[in-house]
Design goal:
single chain; 274 residues; alpha/beta; Arc Repressor Mutant, subunit A; Rossmann fold; seven-stranded parallel sheet; three-stranded antiparallel sheet; 10 helices; 23% strand; globular
Length: 274
């Protein structure tokens, strides 16, 4: 990109590879001060190439989502906490949908000690996490498998989802705007998510706070259509007002932001310098 310094170009390449960059990692990598790195990140954010998060930045979004492996790095600890908090709301002996997403996969991971669950999913990663557990029955939607992330999409998946009426739906979103719209990138994925919302008695949204600083073009639903919102930090006033007005139960998995430290932020792998 024109006008970038060599270091800023390298920072952008790292962010594209891993989904995020952290100030502590970059100061060690480039042997410069944290202040210098923050200025680089701010410059890249001003160009709308990155979006700031606590302690670093992530690739800015618009019409295309991050690659699956990169998404796994973004807010990883927050997603794990959200997954545990969401799973704690799910009783034994119930039925549920779990849709596509790295955060919904953390919910699935936290459900493995539950008993007598029926899980219907269009996420092969969720199915692989749960099928080995004898007290959890797993039904996988049929259809085209998206190679990028193991998502099952298309009309066959939507048709199977429509045959069930379950107790809970666990859904994610790539972005949430200030008016409460839940947004994503792939309209085929969104169609499956809409079918999941329509066929559940109670819908639980799981999304970390970075989703409030992103954008995406396709509407899944609106906050008013969900019953529970599990996130990491307190919501901004505009979204909290919607939740209060609609009686949405908001669960904050990390009420206090974790202290930034070398132990709290894992170092990214070094890239080859060709």
């Amino acid at each position: 990109m024109a006008g970038l310094t060599h270091r800023q170009s390298e920072i952008l390449n790292i962010a594209r590879s891993f989904g995020r960059v952290m100030v502590d990692d970059l100061t060690r990598r480039f042997e410069v001060s944290a202040q210098t790195i923050r200025k680089d990140l701010n410059d890249l954010c001003d160009r709308r190439s990155l979006t700031r998060i606590h302690g670093g930045a992530i690739i800015a979004s618009g019409v295309e989502n991050l690659a699956y492996e990169a998404r796994r790095f973004v807010a990883a600890e927050e997603k794990k906490a959200i997954g545990a908090a969401a799973a704690a709301q799910i009783p034994n002996g119930c039925s549920l949908f779990i849709n596509i997403g790295t955060t919904t996969e953390e919910v699935a991971s936290a459900l493995t000690s539950h008993e007598d669950l029926l899980v219907i999913t269009n996420n092969l990663n969720v199915a692989m996490q749960l099928y080995r557990h004898p007290r959890i029955e797993v039904i996988v939607a049929g259809g085209t498998v998206r190679r990028a992330d193991g998502a099952v999409i298309g009309s066959a998946a939507i048709s199977l989802i429509g045959q069930f009426k379950v107790d809970y739906a666990i859904i994610g979103a790539s972005a949430i705007d200030e008016e409460g719209a839940l947004l994503d990138f792939d309209y085929r994925e969104v169609q499956a998510a809409q079918a999941i919302v329509a066929n559940a008695r109670s819908v639980m949204l799981v999304a970390d706070s970075t989703k409030l600083r992103r954008s995406a073009p396709v509407r899944i639903a609106h906050l008013s259509q969900i019953q529970t919102f599990v996130t990491d930090l307190a919501l901004p006033d505009s979204l909290q007002s919607i939740c209060d007005a609609k009686g949405i139960h908001v669960i904050t998995a990390l009420p206090k932001r974790p202290v930034e430290s070398e132990e709290a932020v894992p170092e990214l792998p070094m890239l080859r310098q060709d």
